[in-house]
């Protein structure tokens, strides 16, 4: 905030998504629908995993934490975007802009590590099934979660260190509906060429490297399943395909944002909406529809809640 006062810019103005009344109504309905779906779907997964003893396994522990991350992520930019759709002045304070950047990168970095951990979990389950529970013990899962959030926060702070003290003297207009580093540094009153390269290296190359690593790991697991096709392989194949879908949906927009030098504004905004609103709502659908145990557990939970068949049991 001190930097904002010193540079003369205390707030930023979003241009938003469209000036067309019809498109704004469509975007409002679209965003509200998928934001509500994201909240409902991810919360349902978390509650189901917590209260169903049959899901107290490492894979579902990681899945529940992925849903927690999606709950946070979808609430960083979507609520303000929905509220701003019919406002003439779409304004965010300097502190609010920095907060959006911090939480989006912290949560994004955490999810990146968690997706890698989920790939490792599937590797152990498929390639070392007899050692699965000792390796993926509750202690290991807790350490993975702590490590994921630590890396996410450190990554976000490293990103903010690049921009928080930049001088901003105008203009203060962002052609978007939320704050992110690539857009923000273009408004700085200084040469940001080296800074853009640092941001690309920090976020772009890390995202690209993690994406390639995950795709290669899943290709290896799929080839392993084909060589040792047996009972239960179809279930593992379904799980792997769901994981790969989530990886592509998560990393696709990130790689575009941070690796593409001068993206098209319309495509940039489309992918931003997809990343902020649509992807968090698709993850519960992907994991639920492709996982038989999860579907059974959700039906069991709903029958207990709606049918009153006795209290839910908590298993620590």
Describe this structure in words.
The protein is mostly helical. The protein contains 11 helices and 3 strands; from the N terminus they run αβααβαααβααααα. A 3-stranded mixed sheet has the order 2-1-3. α2 runs antiparallel to α3 and α8 runs antiparallel to α9. The longest helix is centred in the middle third of the chain and has 35 residues. The N terminus and C terminus are likely disordered.
N- and C-termini, Cα separation:
43 Å
**Averaging pLDDT over every residue, what do you get?**
84
Structural class call reads: mainly alpha
Shape: globular
List the secondary-structure elements in sequence, H or E. HEHHEHHHEHHHHH
How many strand elements?
Answer: 3
Strand order of the largest sheet: 2-1-3
Helicity level: over 70%
- Sheet-strand content, in percent, reads under 5%
What profile does the largest beta sheet have?
A: 3 strands, mixed
Brief write-up:
This protein is mainly α. It contains eleven helices and three strands; from the N terminus they run αβααβαααβααααα.
Set down the secondary structure blueprint:
Layout (H helix, E strand, L loop, with lengths): L1 H6 L3 E4 L6 H31 L6 H27 L5 E4 H34 L4 H4 L2 H26 L9 E2 L6 H5 L7 H35 L5 H27 L5 H25 L2 H16 L9
Parallel strand pairs: 1-3
Antiparallel strand pairs: 1-2
């Amino acid at each position: 905030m001190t930097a904002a006062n010193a540079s003369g810019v205390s707030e930023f103005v979003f241009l938003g998504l469209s000036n067309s009344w019809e498109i704004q109504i469509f975007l409002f309905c679209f965003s509200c629908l998928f934001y509500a779906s994201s909240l409902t779907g991810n919360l349902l997964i978390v509650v189901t995993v917590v209260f169903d003893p049959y899901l107290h396994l490492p894979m579902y522990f990681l899945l529940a934490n992925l849903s927690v991350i999606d709950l946070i992520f979808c609430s960083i930019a979507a609520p303000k975007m929905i509220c701003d759709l019919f406002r003439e002045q779409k304004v965010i304070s300097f502190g609010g802009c920095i907060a959006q950047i911090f939480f989006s990168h912290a949560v994004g970095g955490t999810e990146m590590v968690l997706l890698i951990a989920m790939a490792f979990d599937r590797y152990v389950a498929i390639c070392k099934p007899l050692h699965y529970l000792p390796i993926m013990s509750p202690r290991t899962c807790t350490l993975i979660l702590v490590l994921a959030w630590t890396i996410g926060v450190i990554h976000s702070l490293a990103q903010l260190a690049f921009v928080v003290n930049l001088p901003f003297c105008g203009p203060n207009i962002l052609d978007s509906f939320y704050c992110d580093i690539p857009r923000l540094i273009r408004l700085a009153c200084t040469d940001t060429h080296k800074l853009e390269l640092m941001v690309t290296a920090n976020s772009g190359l890390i995202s690209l490297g993690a994406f390639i690593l995950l795709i290669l790991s899943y290709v290896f697991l799929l080839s392993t399943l084909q060589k040792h096709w047996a009972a239960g392989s179809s279930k593992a194949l379904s799980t792997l395909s769901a994981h790969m879908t989530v990886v592509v949906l998560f990393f696709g927009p990130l790689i575009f944002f941070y690796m593409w030098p001068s993206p098209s504004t319309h495509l940039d905004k489309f992918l931003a909406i997809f990343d902020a609103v649509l992807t968090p709502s698709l993850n519960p659908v992907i994991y639920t529809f492709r996982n038989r145990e999860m579907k059974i557990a959700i039906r069991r939970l709903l029958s207990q809640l709606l049918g009153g068949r006795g209290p839910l049991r908590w298993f620590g």
